Amino acid sequence: MKKILLLPGDGIGHEIMEQAKKVLACFPNLFEYEEGYIGGAAIDKYGTPFPETTLKQALEADAVLLGAVGGPKWDSLPSENRPERGLLAIRKALGLYANIRPIDIWKPLIDLSPLKPSFLKDVSFVVVRELTGDLYFGTPRGVHGEKGSRSAFNTMVYSEEEIKRIAHTGFRLARNRKKKLCSIDKSNVLEAMALWREIVEEVHQEYQDVALSHMYVDNAAMQIIKKPSDFDVILTPNMFGDILSDEAAVLCGSLGLLPSASLGSKHALYEPIHGSAPDIAGMGIANPIGMILSAAMMLETSCGSSDLAFKIRSAVAAVLDAGFRTKDSWSDGMVLVSTDEMGTKIAEHILR
Ligand code: NAD
């Protein structure tokens, strides 16, 4: 039986995790669940955002489902002790090098998008972002000199091995979709990015059924807005992916709708793309759909249960079609529901 670790975290993390649990409970006796602490909740209980107990639970689990971390209560702590450190630490401990963010437009919510509906027809793509290399982790890094004459520096570095493994992830995904992969780089000015392009081309030799294209990051930032339906799989280094994946998320209209997966060679973690939304925590108005769809991704990718994932996604579509909306996505004529009611409606639909 697959073992799943649930880490609600902080803020709305608890409220939306309850809804994911409700949905997962529609498939009884298939998975084993355990709960744990991360982020601010872990600081309060153990004095650290990623305690040993959570590390042990995560290493023993087949998949981790996480809510969100952070909040004003812990904002004054030194940066190395803040809740967000828990997130970086768990990604590192589990060796999660690939972040997968599907961008799908839900037809009933098309008017939420800042783009005209005509631009969004047939938009469905996945951003595959490298997660453990690049400027964020490269050394040397630091600040030299005295105030007034300081200089600061970071290192963009990628090894062939790091590029190869993320490229394989991207090509494998593309193979199961529309067989198109667009690799993002800045190879015209950066050596690390020239190596990125060279290795992506090398790996492509093993995936000749997938059409490969390359795009400079500045052009990609424009094309995601101008012609989002042209993309299928976007493969990107860490920093460019950080920016492009948030830009892509805007197409969907609400942060509360989007799931993500972070994958390593042995472990996997699934979470909605948003944070702990302290401004609405405890109000019962958070949208739980991104969390519920993260659970669907988990069932599909880590539990070999594509059929159950399909049931969840169909239920989400049906509930949206029927006009039920949480506050973030509500408009005239729609039925306003709470976080809890949205979870219940989706679960009821699965059980029909
Ligand atoms: P946020 O994503 O929490 O919120 C941004 C805005 O979107 C807020 O107005 C919020 O109310 C709204 N929102 C977010 N999720 C929503 C949902 N499911 N339904 C309805 N509305 C939703 O980002 P922020 O405000 O910049 O950060 C708040 C805290 O979360 C900070 O402590 C930050 O460090 C942390 N954070 C955590 C993660 C994570 O756990 N992966 C990611 C980003 C930010």
Structure in a nutshell:
With 352 residues, this protein is an alpha/beta fold. The chain has helices at 13-24, 40-46, 52-60, 83-93, 117-120, 160-175, 191-204, 217-226, 238-250, 289-302, 306-321, 339-351, and strands spanning 2-9, 31-35, 63-68, 98-104, 124-130, 142-144, 151-153, 180-185, 211-216, 233-236, 259-263, 268-272, 324-325, 335-336.
What does this structure look like?
This protein is of the alpha/beta class. The protein folds into two domains: 190 residues, 3-Layer(aba) Sandwich (Isopropylmalate Dehydrogenase), CATH 3.40.718; 139 residues, Isopropylmalate Dehydrogenase, CATH 3.40.718.10. The chain is 39% helix and 20% strand. The chain contains twelve helices and 14 strands. A ten-stranded mixed beta sheet has the order 2-1-3-12-11-4-5-10-8-9, with helices on both faces. Helix 11 packs across helix 12. The longest helix is centred in the middle third of the chain and has 16 residues. The chain is globular, with a radius of gyration of 20 Å. The mean pLDDT is 96. The chain binds nicotinamide-adenine-dinucleotide.
